[in-house]
Amino acid sequence: MALPADYRLVVVNNTGISIDAGLIEADIKPFSGDGSGGVSHGSEQTGSTSSSLSAGGSATLITVSGSTAIGLNGNVNGNLSANGTGGPDGDLEFYLERSTDGGTSFERDPTPVAVLSYSSLADKSTTIAA
């Protein structure tokens, strides 16, 4: 499924603990066809949580408006070893949300584009593609 013009990357905190600001990060690079059968990558976009993220909460990491990309790839990071307190037991789930009305409302894809699973305060990362 191609990307719409407006989309965003959202993280859902199912770790059971509050996570300090800035410890969840993402970087994505949109891509499209270059007209000759190859791929052309757009500029990298980065985002992180700007405030603490409570257990069960969600936060938008990156919002893109007016894109002509057909897909994206990148990385997501959860740097929980720097978190102040807590013993996580669960996942950080990263979802792509799509808008068909110019960014007024968004619909979440049913399956996360990435999942980081935790049973201790640790640093984890994985790649994403959508």
Helix run count:
0
Helix percentage range? under 10%
Oligomeric state of shown chains: single chain
Task: Sum up the overall morphology in one term.
Answer: elongated
Mean pLDDT: 93
State the secondary-structure class.
Answer: mainly beta
Which percent range describes the beta-strand content? over 45%
Rg from Cα: 15 Å
User: What is the ordering of alpha helices and beta strands?
Assistant: EEEEEEEEEE
Number of distinct beta strands = 10
Termini gap: 8 Å
What do these coordinates show?
The chain has strands at residues 6-14, 24-33, 39-41, 45-48, 58-64, 71-79, 90-99, 107-108, 114-118, 123-129. The chain has 130 residues and is an all-beta fold. 0% of the residues lie in helices and 51% in strands. It contains no helices and ten strands. The strands form two sheets. Strands 1, 5, 7, 8 and 9 form a five-stranded antiparallel beta sheet that branches. Strands 2, 3, 4, 6 and 10 form a five-stranded antiparallel beta sheet that branches.
